[in-house]
Amino acid sequence: MACVAGLIAVPSSALSNEALSSEPMITKSAPVIVKSLTDYPGRVREVTETQKAEIRAVLDQLDGNTKFICTGARVADNPYRMNIAVRMRAKLVCEYAKSIRPDLSYWYQTKVTKHDNFNGRVIVVSK
Hints:
Blueprint: H1 2-8, H2 17-20, E1 33-36, H3 49-60, E2 67-75, H4 80-100, E3 105-113, E4 122-126
Parallel strand pairs: 2-3
Antiparallel strand pairs: 1-4, 2-4
Helix pairs in contact: 3-4
């Protein structure tokens, strides 16, 4: 039993001064970037040139970010086919961003919103 206790014991010299400090450790975290892309014209699902420029602008701002989330927004009373359309839009936005920065982790989804001005739009978040 004494042998086991000897293996588990940590000499006090092994503890770093930082661990004993009362000062909080400040770590630089990547800035969270949120961008609502320009609205889609009509029933278009493809990423427009304006949206591509907006996506490139977001990717240019990344500073240590590892995640890129594309969210298609729709209001609750829309038919199910609208959910499918905004999910496809979000997927295409993520695929375009991934073609530029394949090193990031990508996720696409849909969410219900109460704000009519976001209906059918894709919001990108990078963190």
